[in-house]
Amino acid sequence: MKKISVHEAVGHVLCHDITQIIPGKIKDRAFKKGHVVREEDIPVLLSLGKDNLYVWENKEGYLHEDDAAQRLSKMSAGAGIDFSEVKEGKINFIAKYDGLLKIDTNMLYEVNKLEEIMLATRHNNTPVKKGDKLAGTRVIPLVIDEKKIIEAESIAKNTFIEVVPYKKLKVGVVTTGNEVYYGRIEDKFGPVIKEKIESYGSEVIEQRIVNDDSDVIAKNIEELMDKGADMIVCTGGMSVDPDDTTPTGIKKVGGEIISYGAPVLPGAMFLISYKGDTPILGLPGCVMYAKTTVFDLVLPRVLIGERIKKEDLAAYGHGGLCLECDVCTYPACSFGKGW
Description:
alpha+beta, Molybdopterin biosynthesis moea protein, domain 2, 4-stranded antiparallel sheet, 11 helices
């Protein structure tokens, strides 16, 4: 790359895009990298404030910003990701399909510590839709020493950004509570759970409404698993009241309690357990009436087949406070966006 006067640029190849900005009207590419400058381009370039241009000259061991961005995107992007065209040295990562965005944040941090390289992403564990923008990468200078890209590639070793598709699970729901079982109040949990489950492509195969007998709760969980349920969701009976026996019922069926309680509001009384590979979730009452809760944070991770650990829940403490906005914008907000 060399710098020359715009008046001497006719016949030379631009080595970078040139942007035209008219406030409130346009911000777009006026000349594309690789354009061969013509005589009639000179007045336009001058009107864009370009008295000098960088034109391409090959220099061994150096990469143009577009080529460097392509190397960085190939190095970091794994399954489920498409790319935008390279524009002004930048490539955007685009979701190929609906799923959960997974990022090795430690690897991302190490790459961004390198000079003259940047890679910006959305938060780890964000549910995304096909076509969503996930990340963007570029190098800072127009031309970069190839050794810096090689260093980044040696740090990464494997791709560290991907979209994991949701599994289509069969879900059994056990709704507990004498007040619902005996018809004193209408069940409000079932429709909420069904809507959330189906929004990810899974299905509720059956809902059982039972009383507060822990043996009965355990029996119905077992029967739903025998009928092919890949996941059990228990609603109600999750507080510390003596009549709330759902955690006891889950223990009686042989569920290994990973955590009873989570540093998330709404959703502090959340329970997650496993019987073998089958997740059994105990949902607190807030899931019935709050727009977004701990259930919305954990459910997508369960639906990609991730086995939730106690430390996963502990990490939600940073970012685990829902602001309960009048208009919910989750997942485009701070809720659940921790480390």
